[in-house]
């Protein structure tokens, strides 16, 4: 049923691109977008690249009422020799389908989706920023479009990809962040939707984020929703700790989102011969390790920041500083390695990057 031919309607009214040093995250969008529809009797159909513009939906469209939607986030990077690279994009479409499955949304063909993305990027090549540290953020997403207030999966959907040039996450160099441990609100629980990139998870996190911000912290550390004991994620990033030479990251337990940065970091660490363990890690154990002088580094991982070092944790009454509030050596080495591969500055021995035009 699915169609490889992408119709193309050119946008004749091209926008001016934002200045490299003035790009705010999520504010600028390219000239075109990718759209494809789903109907039960047709499957996914009519893939097309059209001018970026507002879309019209019925007010009863199911996305507005019951949140049946999933999204992805990845980036296209420009190398010093002007090649354009994607970092493990097939993993994003794999995960999109896993998220969709959780939300009862029909699967897309992952290979076709990647080919559609490449065709869109071919049209929008000029939107991949040239400035050091900048990149083109890619947001694929699916929404339920059937106008129907019944509680049942939608019979129609739209899959779209939009593109947004973004600036360097670290304009003033890598700054470790201060983290507020969240002991009241829960991000996700086992059996819930934490393993899916779906809208509700993020709206439900704002309350905790608001409190952290008010108290001068930049992100929250999420604990498990059952016992409120074990560490899960930091903000919307996966989290790693270096304790006495060993790297520990919470095991995938049915409520943690499996990051592609996370899986890449684990592979790199194994490759380097650094001991890395995926297991349950309680906050208590972590604070004890700190007391014994064994908590050496902490960092979040995700597409936006790649590595975001944690300089301070605040839990109840207890504030602890990690590595003197500075980025650790291993965190720095991981950051340089991952960003080096993504931007084509170091050799991609893992074969993770895909070049546009290849
Ligand atoms: C997207 C996301 C991550 C990081 O995933 P990456 O693939 O590394 O970008 C981690 N946690 C949550 C909750 C996320 O939404």
TrEMBL record:
CDD domains: BCAT_beta_family (cd01557). GO terms for biological process: isoleucine biosynthetic process; L-leucine biosynthetic process; L-valine biosynthetic process. The keyword Transferase applies. It comes from the Bacteria. GO terms for molecular function: L-isoleucine-2-oxoglutarate transaminase activity; L-leucine-2-oxoglutarate transaminase activity; L-valine-2-oxoglutarate transaminase activity. Its EC number is 2.6.1.42. Gene3D superfamilies: 3.30.470.10, D-amino Acid Aminotransferase, subunit A, domain 2 (3.20.10.10). It catalyses: L-leucine + 2-oxoglutarate = 4-methyl-2-oxopentanoate + L-glutamate; L-valine + 2-oxoglutarate = 3-methyl-2-oxobutanoate + L-glutamate; L-isoleucine + 2-oxoglutarate = (S)-3-methyl-2-oxopentanoate + L-glutamate. Pfam families: Aminotran_4. InterPro entries: Aminotrans_IV, Aminotrans_IV_CS, Aminotransferase-like, B_amino_transII, BCAT-like_C, BCAT-like_N, BCAT_family. Keywords: Amino-acid biosynthesis, Aminotransferase, Branched-chain amino acid biosynthesis, Pyridoxal phosphate, Transferase. The keyword Amino-acid biosynthesis applies. The modification N6-(pyridoxal phosphate)lysine is found at residue 197. Pathway: Amino-acid biosynthesis; L-isoleucine biosynthesis; L-isoleucine from 2-oxobutanoate: step 4/4; Amino-acid biosynthesis; L-leucine biosynthesis; L-leucine from 3-methyl-2-oxobutanoate: step 4/4; Amino-acid biosynthesis; L-valine biosynthesis; L-valine from pyruvate: step 4/4. Its cofactor is pyridoxal 5'-phosphate. Belongs to the class-IV pyridoxal-phosphate-dependent aminotransferase family. This is Branched-chain-amino-acid aminotransferase.
């Amino acid at each position: 049923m699915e169609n490889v031919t992408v119709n193309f309607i050119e946008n004749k009214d091209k926008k001016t691109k934002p200045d490299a040093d003035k790009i705010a995250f999520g504010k600028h969008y390219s000239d075109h977008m990718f759209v494809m529809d789903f109907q039960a009797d047709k499957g996914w159909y009519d893939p097309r690249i059209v001018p970026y513009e507002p879309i019209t939906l019925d007010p009863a469209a199911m996305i507005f009422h019951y949140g049946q939607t999933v999204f992805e986030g990845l980036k296209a990077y420009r190398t010093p020799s002007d090649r354009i690279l994607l970092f493990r994009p097939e993993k994003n479409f794999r995960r999109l389908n896993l998220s969709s499955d959780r939300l009862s949304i029909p699967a897309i063909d992952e290979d076709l989706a990647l080919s559609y993305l490449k065709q869109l990027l071919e049209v929008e090549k000029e939107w991949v920023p040239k400035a050091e540290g900048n990149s083109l953020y890619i947001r694929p997403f699916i929404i339920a479009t059937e106008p129907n207030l019944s509680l049942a999966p939608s019979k129609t959907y739209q899959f779209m990809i939009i593109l947004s040039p973004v600036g360097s996450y670290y304009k003033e160099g890598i700054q470790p962040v201060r983290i507020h441990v969240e002991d009241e609100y829960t991000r996700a629980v086992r059996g819930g939707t934490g393993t899916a990139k779906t809208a509700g998870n993020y709206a439900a996190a704002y309350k905790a984020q608001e409190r952290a911000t008010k108290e001068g912290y930049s992100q929250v550390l999420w604990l498990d929703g059952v016992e409120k004991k074990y560490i899960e994620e930091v903000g919307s990033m996966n989290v790693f700790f270096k304790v006495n030479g060993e790297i520990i990251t919470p095991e995938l337990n049915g409520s943690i989102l499996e990051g592609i940065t996370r899986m890449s970091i684990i592979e790199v660490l194994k490759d380097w011969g650094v001991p890395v363990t995926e297991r349950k890690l309680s906050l208590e154990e972590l604070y004890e390790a700190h007391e014994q002088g064994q908590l050496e580094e902490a960092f979040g991982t995700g597409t936006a920041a790649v590595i975001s070092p944690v300089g301070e944790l605040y839990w109840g009454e207890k504030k602890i500083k990690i590595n003197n509030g500075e980025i650790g050596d291993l965190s720095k080495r991981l950051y340089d390695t991952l960003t080096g591969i993504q931007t084509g500055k170091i050799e991609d021995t893992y074969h993770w990057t895909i070049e546009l035009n290849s």
